[in-house]
Amino acid sequence: MLNGRIKNLKLSSTLALVLKANELREKGKKVISLSVGEPDFPTPDYIKEAGIKAIKNGKTRYTPASGIKELKEALIDIYEKEQSYRFDINEVMVHPGSKFSIFLVANTILSEGDRVLIPLPYWVSYPEIIKFTGAEPVFVNSWNGNEFYYKYEDYEKEIKKGIKLFILSSPSNPTGIIMKKEELKKLLKAAVDYDFYLLIDECYRRIIYDGATYPSPLKVFPEAKERVIVSGSFSKTFAMTGWRIGFTFAPKEIIKYMGVLQSHSTSNPATPSQYAALAALTEEKDEVYKMVGEYQRRRDMAFDLLRKIPKIKITKPEGAFYLFPYLGEAIKGKFNSTYEFTEYLIEKYHVVVVPGEAFGLEGFIRISYAASEDDIKEGILKIAEAING
Ligand SMILES: Cc1ncc(COP(=O)(O)O)c(C=O)c1O
Predict the structure, then answer these.
(1) What is the pTM of this model?
(2) How many CB atoms are located within 10 Å of the residue 326 CB?
(3) d(CA 37, CA 217)
(4) I want to staple 203 with a disulfide (CB 3.0 to 4.6 A). Which of 123, 233, 307, 339 is the partner?
(5) What's the 66 CA to ligand 1 centre distance in angstroms?
(6) Contact, 54 vs 279, CB < 8 A?
(7) Quick check: helix, strand or coil at residue 33?
(8) Distance between CA atoms of 231 and 240, rounded to whole angstroms?
(9) Atom of ligand 1 nearest to the CA of 246
(10) Are strands 136-141 and 354-355 parallel, antiparallel or unpaired?
(11) pLDDT at site 13
(12) How far away, in angstroms, is 203 Cα from ligand 1 center?
């Protein structure tokens, strides 16, 4: 007999699409993948070299379970530099990837039956992590019929009913929107007034465009200090997905218990990876900014191409590397769902995108522009053709 909670978890709804794409590749077909959630750039050389040097210098043993002090200090310094707020060393820890940060946060603060507000569309793992703790995800749509926008008033009704946690992905995967300063301030004030935690998933914080500003929660509303948890990652900014390094800033009691749980589960994140991450921060090179410039160029190109497709509605992303257009009107009468449309797109045009259903919203597709310019252009042209059935 299996544990009841594990049986509640959904297998990734995109798995079937990935298998189909692999099958086509094995048959020698050219498949255009606009579905991946990771940079198409290699890890910058200076980071790779730091990892190699760490291994050669014997940094191959256990470290403290919550991460090495040097990396925590570097994280605190850079957060202060960029977000004008200085955390204490007891308020930070390092994990094997930020997905595990979210998992630990959820398991540290949630109890059976707690309500957790998650804006729609969500990053695929949030609901499953929440369900695994025995808490209940509550979804509120961030689509106003024309565009995506994080607006405090949309969430207020559920907040007033009582929630223990609010999970905010900003910049969002899959929409690329950022919660604006005024809305964030209202949300932070509500966190204090209605007594809930705000977990801000900042996995894409440093991938933002057009000089957009990313509001610093504790500068915007310092009174919420005991309510704010920030989760961050090296995966996307530094093209380090496989190194598995993420981190959390949180009130010290939360960090303490997350540390206990990590010490009894994964223990420390891989030691050479921690040294590579340290170099990523302390020896930062232009390459990192160049990647952001390149994503912005591709975003502009993809956005312009998509916008020309009749009946599509699309929000211009301010960060991350995804577009999340609404196709509901365009495919009406031709396909029963966006899932069906994405199946057809692979089958007939060999283009892979992720259906909105995976993010809790039917009628949309997620297009990743962490792909070559040629693939983005060709992929979008084929999407336009496929819409015509
Ligand atoms: C919004 C968001 N949060 C967290 C993660 C987890 O990243 P990692 O575990 O590689 O740090 C991802 C990865 O795709 C993501 O898109």
Answers:
(1) 0.96
(2) 22
(3) 26
(4) 233
(5) 19
(6) no
(7) strand
(8) 16
(9) 11
(10) unpaired
(11) 67
(12) 6
Task: Confirm or reject: Cβ of 124 under 6 Å from ligand 1.
Answer: no
114 close to ligand 1 (CB < 6 Angstrom) = no
d(Cα 266, Cα 384) in Å, to the nearest integer? 45
Q: Over range 375-380, report the average pLDDT.
A: 98
Q: Which amino acid is at 363?
A: G
Atom of ligand 1 minimally distant from the CA of 234: 11
Cα–Cα distance measured from residue 154 to residue 338, given in angstroms and rounded to the nearest whole number: 25
What is d(CA 221, CA 186) in angstroms, rounded to the nearest whole number? 9
Q: Which residue has the tokens 């302390």?
A: 282
Q: How far is the CA of 41 from the centre of ligand 1 (A)?
A: 17
- The closest-lying atom of ligand 1 relative to the alpha carbon of residue 37 is 14
Please give the domain boundaries of the chain with CATH numbers for all domains: 4-30+287-387 (3.90.1150.10), 60-282 (3.40.640.10)
In 3-state terms, what secondary structure has residue 210?
A: coil
Among residues 166, 114, 167, 135, which one has the least CA distance to residue 5?
A: 135
Three-state DSSP class for residue 326: strand
**Which residue's CA lies nearest to atom 16 of ligand 1?**
173
pLDDT digits (tens, 9 = 90+) for 262-315: 999 999 999 999 999 999 999 988 888 899 999 999 999 999 999 999 999 999
Matching residue, tokens 């983005």: 376
* 156-178 pLDDT, tens digit each: 999 999 999 999 999 999 999 99
Atom of ligand 1 nearest to the CA of 201: 3
Which of 323, 324, 331 has its CA nearest to residue 385? 331
The answer to whether 100 and 246 have CB atoms below 8 angstroms apart is: yes
Closest CA relative to residue 98, chosen from 243, 240, 232: 232
125 CB-near residues (< 8 Å, 6+ apart): 99, 102
Report pLDDT digits (tens) over 41-51. Answer: 999 999 999 99
In the predicted model, is pLDDT for residue 10 greater than 90?
no
**Closest among 316, 239, 240 to 273, alpha carbons compared:** 240
Distance 80 CA to ligand 1 centre (A): 22
Closest CA to 26 of 35, 34, 18: 18
- Angle between helical axes of 152-161 and 181-193 (0-180°, round to 10): 10
